Fold this protein.
Amino acid sequence: MSAMLPLEHGDDKIQGWHRDRLAVIYVRQSSRQQVADHGESTRTMGHVGLVLGLEMSRLARAGRDWHQLIELCTLAGALLADADGVYDPDWYNDRLLLGLKGTMTELELRLIRQRMASGRLARAGRGELAVPLPAGFARRASGEVALDPDEQVQAVVRLVFGLFEQLGTVHAVLRFLAGHQVQIGMRERSGPGKGEVAWRAPHQQGLVNMLRNPAYAGICAYGRSRTDPARRLPGREHSGRARGLESGQWLVRIDGALPAYISVEQYERNLARLAANRARAESMGAPREGPALPGGLVACGICGHRLQVSYEASGQGLTGRYCCQRRHHTYGQARCQQMAARFLDEHVVAQVLSALAPAALELSVTAAAQAGDRRAEADRIWRQRLERAGFACDRARRQYQLAEPENRLVARQLEREREAALAERAHLGEEYQRYQRARPARLSAAELAAIRALASDIPALWAAPTTTIADRKPLLRAVVESVQVTADGATERVHAAITWAGGQQTHAGLRRPVARTGQLSYYPALTERIRALAGQGLGSAAIAGQLAAEGFRTPRQHERFHDGEIQQLIRRLGPRPGLDHDHRTDQGGLGPGQWWLAALAREISMPAATLFGWLKRGWITGRQDTRPPCRWIITADSAEVERLRTLHQLPAGYHNRRRWTDDGTPIETSTDKEPGNHAREDLRSLH
Ligand SMILES: [Zn+2]
C-alpha cells in the first residue's frame, strides 16, 4: 500500500509526531447505526497519525460519513492520504479539496445508480430484464422464459390455481396441499444445485405471492413495489418496501410477454378474491371458523356496517353473538345493536334450505364431480413423485454397475446412494398406498350414491355429522348475499331481511332472546295478565301455565316461565296483587299516577337507592305511607316517568356538571348512590 502513496508530496505536512503515531486503513462503516454503536474507531482516533485509503473520495458513500471522517481527523490532528497525496484537514486548502472530492464522489455514485436504474427500466420495458422467476417457470439458455419443462412442477402450479378457484381461500388451498402432501417445485437460484428442482412444503405467504404474481397470467411486470423512505428502519437495508401496488402504479407491464398458466381475467379475479377475503368491516370477509353460519354476511340495519361475530364458550359449545361495533369503535358512541347468533342462524338456514331444495340434486352431482377431479389430480401428482423416485433408483443402479470394482471407495459410496434411493422409493410407495386407502382416486359408487341420496333430503344432508361447518358456510354464501337485521330498540323484536344472490329479498319479523323481562315489547300486557291472574287467586305454577297457553314467551324466548320467575315477577310488580288491598289497615291500593318507590325504580331500570336520593334532593315528589311498613309513594304520571327515564340515561356525572354551571355551586352527591343510614332503614321496607 505504501508503495502506491507518493508521500514525498506531503513531506512538509508530515510532522515528527505524526510518524510516532499509528497509521490506520479506514474501513467504511456502512450504516448510521453501526457508526453510533461501534465507537471503537472514534475512541482510537487519538492515537492515529495517518488514515490511508486507496482513493480517498471512495471512503464515503454519503457526504455524511465523509464529513464525519474529516471532522474526526481534524479534531485528532490526523492526516488523510490516498494515491494522489497527503491531506491535512486542518489546513483550509486541503479541507476545501477534501470537501470537493466528497461531493464529486457522491455525484458520481448518483450518476452510476441513475444510469443503472434507467438501464434496468429500459431492459424491463423491452421485457428483457432477467428477474428471478417464480415456481413453474424456467429460463432457457437463450434467456427466453418458458414453462418449467418438469411436468410435475407444472401440474402443481396448475393445481394451486385450480384449487383457489374452487375453494376460495389461501388457507383452504394450503390445507388441501398439506393434507395431500403436495409440494411445490422451485428451481434453485444459487448454490451448487443451481437450476435443479427443489421440492418445498407450501406455505401461506408463498401461495399468496403466487396468486398475486402477474407472471402466471403471462404478464411481464417490473416495479410492483416501491421504497417508502418514511417506512425505512435504521440498519435494515430492504425495509420500507411498499409491496402489492395496483397494476396502474407498476413501472412496466407487458401483457402476453410470458407463457401463461392462467388468463388475465382469472388473475384479476384472484386478486379481487384475495382482497375480499381480508376481513375488514368494508368487505364481506372469507367464511370464518366458528358455528355462526352467516357471520360476515350479517349487516346492521341501523348503520349499514357488518356485524362482528364473537363467541363465548358455554355448556352447549360455542355461543355466538352478533354485535355492531362500528359506531363504538369509530366514534365512541353506543353500539347500534347486538344479539345472540343462534335464532338468526336458524332462521337463515331454514330459509336457505327451503330455497335450495330444487337445485340440490344438480348441485350434489357437480360437487361429487369436483371432489373426484381434485382427488384425481392429487393422485396424478403422487404417481409422478413415484416415477421420479424410480428414475433416481435406476440412475443409482447404473452408476453403481458402471463403477470399476477396483475403485472400492467410490463403489461403496455409490452402493450407499443406491440403497438410499431404493429406501426412498419403498418409503414413497408405502406412503402412496396409505394415501390411496384414505382417499381413493375416484369416489366409489357407494359414495356417489350416498351423496345423491342425501341430496334428495337436504335438511338431513345439512345436519349430517359429516357435513362440517366449513362445508356449510360456502354453500350459504353461494346463495345469500347479505342478511340485514334491525332490532326494535332493546326489545325482543328483530326485523331480518335476507338478500339472495340475484337481489330478491325475504323479510321476516323474528324474536331474539333478551336479558330482562322489562325489555320485552309485550311487558305491559304480560304484567297486566299476571296481575289479573294473581288477583283471581292463581298460584305461580297455574299462572305460568296460563301464560304459556296465551303465547307469552320468556325473555330468553322459552315457551314457559318457571314458577320461580313468576313469583319474582309478582314480587317485583310494586303493587303486589295480594297487598293491593291492605287487610291490616283496610285501605285500598295506590291511585293512578302513583308508584311505590321500588316499583318506579324498576320501571326506569335504575337502583332504588338512586331514586331515593333524587327524592331527598327534591327532584321527584312523593309522600311516605302512613301505614306500616311506611313505604314511599311517588307521584309520577307517564310524562314524568319518561322525564325520569331520560334523566337516568344521561351520562354519569352529568347532573353534577349541570348544576355546577347553572348556579356555580357543586352539589353534595354522596347520597346519589349511598343513602344515609336513615335512608337505608326506609329503603328496607321498599322491597
Ligand atoms: Zn350499526
Remarks:
- Residues 639 and 645 are 10 Å apart (CA to CA).
